[in-house]
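Hi V.,

Quick status before I head out on leave. The structure for the redesign project is tokenized and pasted below; the design run finished overnight.
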């Protein structure tokens, strides 16, 4: 009886019913609010949680797909390096860790480089994948970053880097640290050829990557809430033994303190990168950019308009034509007031002027008063400056002779 209950019945039940296996990543939990999001919906929203707007970490393949036009790009060939130059082993062999990371991410190493079109113009993009051993910087990752920069120099295109790393890879020791100066030299190569180098700092960007090529870009963009630092906040707090402010070393905190240039939402990141690449390359905007700019009204507030500064936008709910008409009416009233004030002032001056005095300011300013022989004053126009080489003519006055010799001159 036990054999029938324990073996036969389960076997018959297995043939009649089929058990469906639910994948582990079908639902994803938001780390900030605990909201459960369907994985397909999260992927369609570029891995941004709809409710909390929390930016989840993004894989290298998905990042390139959402950056290039129509998700089309070609991988840049990367040089091969020694897989385990130091024969390193801690709890496990370094080669075993590399095999597991490659199987999980389908990547050769932490950096993936692709080239394609970004809103119609060529671009080379390198992405660090945090899933591959924390995006750590090793020999292979360093060679990939350098190869991407040299590819951009070869094709004369902008180079865009998405940084996400925990720092240098300890399994490669000093060889991983040597990638910091090597990548710095490659950045200088981009600058020598006057090519744009744009860095997008994602969560997290720390350690030796922050201390090298991740902070050497022409423009530094960060995603909302990204952790950007050299040493983590926990290490700093334990070292200085003080409570750190809220949001310390996050993207918004660094923007407020001038460490980065802008914080851009992931949904607007692609168009922002294309616009910055055009500006740095001194190229004219595309037709699409012109169409988008034409849809946006150019509105400035009253204070900025009167001061001649292109400032904040007008409050919502006002039409641009009404605002322009109101501004024109204010300017016209101001001109009328100024003209009326000028007319009243001139009439008042004409009433108070004496017959002997000119009413025109210009005649007063350009005239000099000379004494006549009878002692009465008269107005004469300004005379030109005398020539120092010619003698000054003597002026007659009070019955004196015009050609009276000066004292000390010989007389006939």
């Amino acid at each position: 009886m036990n054999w029938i209950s324990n073996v036969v019945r389960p076997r018959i039940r297995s043939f009649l019913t089929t058990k469906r296996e639910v994948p582990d990543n079908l639902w994803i939990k938001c780390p900030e609010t605990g909201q459960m999001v369907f994985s397909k919906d999260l992927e369609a929203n570029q891995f941004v949680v709809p409710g909390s707007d929390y930016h989840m970490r993004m894989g290298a393949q998905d990042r390139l797909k959402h950056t290039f036009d129509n998700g089309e790009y070609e991988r840049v060939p990367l040089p091969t390096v020694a897989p385990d130059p130091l024969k390193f082993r801690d709890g496990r062999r370094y080669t075993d860790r590399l095999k597991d990371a490659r199987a999980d991410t389908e990547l050769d190493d932490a950096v993936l480089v692709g080239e394609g079109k970004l809103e119609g113009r060529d671009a080379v993009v390198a992405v660090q994948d945090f899933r591959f051993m924390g995006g750590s910087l090793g020999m292979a990752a360093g060679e990939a970053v350098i190869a991407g920069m040299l590819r951009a120099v070869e094709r004369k295109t902008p180079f865009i880097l998405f940084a996400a790393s925990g720092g240098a890879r300890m399994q490669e020791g000093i060889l991983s640290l040597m990638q910091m100066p090597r990548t710095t030299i490659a950045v200088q190569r981009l600058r020598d050829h006057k090519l744009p180098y744009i860095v997008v700092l994602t969560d997290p960007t720390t350690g030796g990557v922050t201390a090298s090529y991740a902070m050497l870009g022409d423009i530094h963009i960060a995603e909302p809430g990204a952790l950007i630092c050299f040493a983590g906040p926990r290490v700093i707090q334990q070292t200085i033994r003080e409570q750190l402010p809220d949001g310390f070393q996050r993207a918004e905190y660094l923007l407020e303190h001038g460490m980065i240039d802008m914080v851009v939402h992931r949904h607007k990141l692609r168009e922002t990168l294309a616009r910055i690449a055009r500006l740095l390359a001194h190229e004219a905007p595309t037709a699409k950019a012109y169409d988008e700019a034409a849809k946006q009204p150019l509105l400035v507030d009253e204070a900025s308009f009167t001061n001649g500064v292109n400032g904040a936008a007008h409050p919502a709910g006002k039409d641009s034509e009404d605002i322009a008409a109101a501004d024109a009416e204010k300017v016209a009233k101001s001109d009328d007031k100024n003209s009326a004030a000028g007319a009243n002032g001139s009439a008042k001056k004409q009433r108070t002027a004496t017959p002997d005095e000119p009413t025109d300011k210009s005649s007063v300013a350009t005239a000099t008063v000379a004494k006549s022989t009878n002692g009465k004053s008269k107005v004469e126009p300004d005379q030109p400056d005398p020539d120092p080489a010619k003698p000054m003519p003597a002026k007659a006055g009070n019955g004196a002779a015009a050609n009276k010799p000066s004292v000390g001159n010989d007389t006939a």
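Above is the designed sequence. Residues 202 and 226 are 5 Å apart (CA to CA).

G. will cover questions while I'm gone.

Best,
W.
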